Amino acid sequence: MGQMIGAVAGSVMLASAATAATPPPSLDAMLSYPFVDQLIAASAGDRIGWLTTVNGVRTVWTAAAPGFAPRKVASTGTDDGQELTGLVFTPDGSHMAWVRGGAHDANWPAEGRLQPNPANAAEQPKLEVWTAAAAGGPACKVGEGDAPALSATTIAYVTDGAVFTAPLAAPAGSGAGGKGAGSRTGGSGKAAKDIAKPAKLFFDRGKDSDLAWSPDGRRLAFVSHRGDHSFVGVFDVAAKRLTWLAPSTGQDAEPVWSRDGTRVAFVHQPGDGGAPEPLLTETYHPWSIRVADAATGQAREAWHSPRTRDGSAPEVPGGVVLRWMAGDVLTFRGEMDGWAHLYAVPAAGGEAKLLTPGAFIVEDVRPTADGTALLYTANTGEEVADDDRRHVFKVAVAGDAPVQVTGGGPGLQFQPAAVGKGFVAYVSVHAQHPANVVIAPTGDGDKAAIDCPHDNCEVDAYPSQALVVPQRVTFNAADGTVVHGQLFATPGEGARKPAVIFVHGGPPRQMLLGWSYMDYYANAYAVNQALALRGFVVLSVNYRLGIGYGRAFQHPEHAGPAGASEYQDVVAGAKYLQSLTMVDPARVGIWGGSYGGYLTGLALARNSDIFKAGVDLHGVHDWTRTAFEEFAPAKRYEQGDWAEFLKVAFKSSPDADIATWKSPVLLIQGDDDRNVRFNQTVDLARRLDAAGVPFEELVLPDEIHGFLRHASWLKVDAATIDFLTRVLKP
């Protein structure tokens, strides 16, 4: 992978197949990478499914043993900005379902059930559930809704917080359209007719989610959200009977069935309320696992978290990941030792046993079909640099030592799915090659990529060899905290180059030494590569608040609106760049989106002496606006604490330092953003204009936070590169 770079000044040797004399690939070519997501396997049988996005065209695929030849199930056919998400199988893999449309990265829904319309379609887009027979045949639209769950015969989904169901098979003579493999069903919505009319399964005044069928498909577990509390319920379809599982004042979620279908386990947390919590310091958030009789609703506690900060409910993406495994064992993810690890506890109750010890985090947790083991990814391996990668591991629920399934080194692997007996499917990338689907034995042995699993059927057509291989670097922040980053640069000596800091959003994210498993950051990776190939030195900074380096790193004191302590990591990254002999210290810029947009604004406002230009994508610029719009209506605060919080929050905002903001900035946001309100950018633009700070704007009408159209990303990325080039490379 190349040498590890420490926090020392001097020149750095970097590996790349490109040379300074080779013209870089066009941005169109750089953004034509295939992105693979939602790789799943049927719990019984040898069938897998996955989604790809190439140039904005989204496609549902499936493949089955023995040859695993890919078959296109449905495709949007165009860059229409309509997501395909929520891919699921029936237990035997005979049918699959997915969702078309929506804004699944949103923090709040738009009013009036308006779905995103980034392509400005004349007809209002809908959020739709689709299904198809996995072995072949047309895709069928089920109805408007989201979050499908499949039993052997029935599809359940949620519409406006209510549960609807429909039979899976299209009625004989229905005339359901489509042309089988490669049809545009599930995309335009015009190639297939509806299946049998869905019906509401039951009435519930709450907003329902987390649908889970019992193993025999006769009962449906779900969560009923009721504001300051939530219940787990079980509906018996034949008896038309609803049973609440140990209803309380708490927030209950993540129901999972026992393997014999008699019990349901779920995660329990306290309901909203009680004495107001401190706003400027972290507090303990207790949680527990409860097991209930599905027939009577009576429950008992199987496990309770220790009353320490590390015992709080994990805030890494994916949360607890509760699973009911063979041997009547529950597994879950916790951070009791300071890292997001897997634990096992008897369903009857007892002590939790740590399954995955070590200084790494666990993600992508999937059970094997027999329930005796868990597949997962972790940022660990034989090389030091594996802490900035992901590899696949397997651990037995009985507690044997974990086994690494995929090789270490420069490759990265995501989303493992157990396939039949003894095989695993996963998404494979590395620094230069984008995503592909791989089938491999769970032990040592050969592996084979799925042939042609993309719309263009040519992953090799991507200009992979032109890409640089980013290098792992570490440097120290002002308070001594060790910070990780990935350094992108082309080799060669000569004139000093301009440099750019990239700061991710989230902030619970980790940028890696290769393509990301998140589509937003796969795009960012391509842009950082494009900048490097155009003569910039790029440093992607994994600042504190991010994942991958332990709970203490993710939960620092005085971060965000409580003091922006993470900003010192960004400054440390800039000073590290300035220490390199290949970098012109007077030409350092910064770019980032969402929380990275916030840090970009903070850098330009506080340190225009260091950061000479920036591109701010949908960033937060005034924490007090966020506090009033998001926090105040839902929570109660002590008057003094609230007043002090608002004071500190504003000081932690870019708006507080407009007087020292001198460097030019490009502001970018979609005006249908449902994560960061558009008024954050409107407000900043007015403040910059009044202060005489040079700024440019790129507003995308009807786009959301994570831009849905390839055309939008192409416009945004081109503008980003153009702006940084004009300012830093005049």
DSSP helix fraction: 10-25%
Q: Name the structural class.
A: alpha+beta
**Total E-strand runs:** 40
Quaternary organisation = single chain
- CA-atom Rg in angstroms: 25 Å
* CATH homologous superfamily heading of the largest domain: Alpha/Beta hydrolase fold, catalytic domain
Mean pLDDT: 90
CATH topology of the largest domain: Rossmann fold
The amount of beta strand, in percent, is: 25-35%
Supply the key terms.
single chain; four-stranded antiparallel sheet; Neuraminidase; 9 helices; 730 residues; 33% strand; 14% helix; 4 domains; eight-stranded mixed sheet
Q: Concise description?
A:
With 730 residues, this protein is an alpha+beta fold.
